[in-house]
Amino acid sequence: MRIKHVSMMLAGSTLIVTLAASPALADSTSLPDPDTAAVSAVHRTALAQGAPGALTRIDDGDLSRHIATGEADKAAHTPMDTGRRFRAGSVSKTFTAVVLLQLVAEGRVELDAPANRYLPEPLPDDRITVRHLLSHRSGLYDYTNDMFQQTVPGFEAVRHRVFSYQELIHLSTARPLNNEPGAAYSYSNTNFVVLGRLIEHTTGTPIATHYQQRIFTPLRLRNTSYIHPRTSLSGSYARGYLRQDDTTLPPVDSTEQTVSWAQSAGAVISNGEDLNRFLSALLSGRLLPAEQLRDMTTMVPVTSDGKQSYGLGLRGRTLSCGTTVYGHTGTVQGYYTYAFTTSDGARSMTSLANTSNNGTVNATLGATLEASFCGSDAAQARRAAPSETVTEDVAPQLAPN
Ligand code: REX
Known about the structure:
Blueprint: E1 5-11, E2 14-20, H1 36-48, E3 53-60, E4 63-73, E5 78-79, E6 86-87, H2 91-105, H3 130-134, H4 144-147, H5 151-158, H6 165-173, H7 189-203, H8 207-216, E7 241-242, E8 252-253, E9 269-270, H9 272-283, H10 290-296, E10 300-301, E11 308-310, E12 315-318, E13 324-332, E14 335-342, E15 347-353, E16 355-356, H11 359-365, H12 367-373, H13 376-384
Parallel strand pairs: 7-16
Antiparallel strand pairs: 1-2, 2-4, 3-4, 3-15, 4-5, 6-9, 7-8, 10-11, 11-12, 12-13, 13-14, 14-15
This protein binds glycyl-L-alpha-amino-epsilon-pimelyl-D-alanyl-D-alanine.
């Protein structure tokens, strides 16, 4: 976009920048304007709860809003800015799902076929289908529950490790299934590690190449990479700070790690601009044929209030203004991410806080969704009905308050 109008505002420690290509702002949906002051307030709350910094970038047609608060690097006191790269955690699952669904469109994989048809070493139950893996209904145990029972010792034990997919799968299959295949939603990183294995085995091509050729290059995602097992982020990035279980101890700088424990379930590095462009392209039909996009966006409720749902590698959130947005959340040591877009891909939002193992910050950060997509309507709704706590349905035993 050619920037014609820039406005900047400093609210306390928050920098709010609005960039527009034309004065008649090309807002392509009937959504209310994002409430950037509310986003900034969410950031400040997250900082008060222990996040060193936070960023939110909202893209809507020619209009781009950038809100950055606090620090990207605590030691150097570098201010946060919205261009910084970070570890996107489980947002990687959406990238993996796109690769897999492209293979489905090419006739190389069948969604309802047994996953074992495509794996070199079979899973213990032939009834697990490819669709079960993508929708977290396989029942496969999430091995990360055990790995990160103790947060910092668990992290340090794997920080520099390089696992094969099969080693990770064995950690899961050593345990019984959580449920009969297909019988229930049970979120598990194992599903997307199996999908990485399946993609590589079926095509003979590394997942990194698929991401690059099918998504990063066509969408010109220049800040997005999959560098497993290399440990360093490049360019301009936010450092990640992992809170210890004993919160009286200082957070651990967790920026450098292989993320080999997650790979195709969580090792993509990206930034706000790229995640917004990726999700916008996906939902507006530029990455998948209509049939596969329909499969991916066929959502099943995963919370009793029906406000959170899951498709294939895609989360849905129904907000207080009635709008449902699609994307994913992510948690890797030192980084909490929310990346979501509207059903037509017209407005997209990415938020990051550079801390983790702090469920309070994660729940707080989720409120940027309301501010970004419901605007000041969200504030009105909150006044009418006192705020509910947003809780992730992910490995609940790992989510401290
Ligand atoms: C692992 C533990 C979290 C993190 C995890 N991350 O499973 C996947 C992911 C890749 O992004 N999931 C998120 C650690 C939640 C999602 O799908 O939305 N916690 C931390 C502990 C707790 O070690 N003892 O908070 O950094």
